[in-house]
Amino acid sequence: MTIIENTVTIARPVQDVFNFLTDMNNHQQLMPENIYNWSSTRDEARFTIQNMAKLAIHISERKEFSEIIAVPSEQAPFGVELKWTLEDLGNGSTAAKHIISADLNMMMKMLASGPLQKLVNHQTEKLKEILG
Q1: Tell me: the pLDDT tens digits for 66-112?
Q2: What CDD domains does the record point to (predicted)?
């Protein structure tokens, strides 16, 4: 299993960050430009990654103010879990960690690790920009 993650500190209460992330409609704002054909509901998002694949993911678990997990709702090119963990830092600040766990063979790991790390970094920075 390949684990890719990044953490940011956001100057907002954990409830605000959790409420934003539990609505898949908001996740479009976190996506880089190579994501298109976006459609979403509160629980599910469908999109295309340029030159790669079409994905459909849904939120499989919400732990109030601490964790949101999304997994593919249709066949994906590889097993993947997208997780946000939140920690209340006090003083109205939140640590938000984005973790992608992907079941990649060695060839896929070489090809996908860089773009997945870029995606995680982009999404955490966008979250900080939008809510910060």
Answers
A1: 999 999 999 887 899 999 999 999 999 999 999 999 999 999 899 88
A2: SRPBCC
* Mean residue pLDDT across the chain: 95
CA 59, distance to chain mean position in Å, is 10
Residue ranges of domains in the chain, CATH in brackets: 2-131 (3.30.530.20)
pTM of the predicted model as reported, rounded to 2 decimal places: 0.93
Closest C-alpha among 80, 29, 23 to residue 55:
80
Measured CA distances, 71 to 80, 81, 89, 95, 107 (Å): 6, 5, 27, 22, 22
Helix (H, G, I), strand (E, B) or coil at 102: strand
Alpha carbon distance 125, 45 (integer Å)? 20
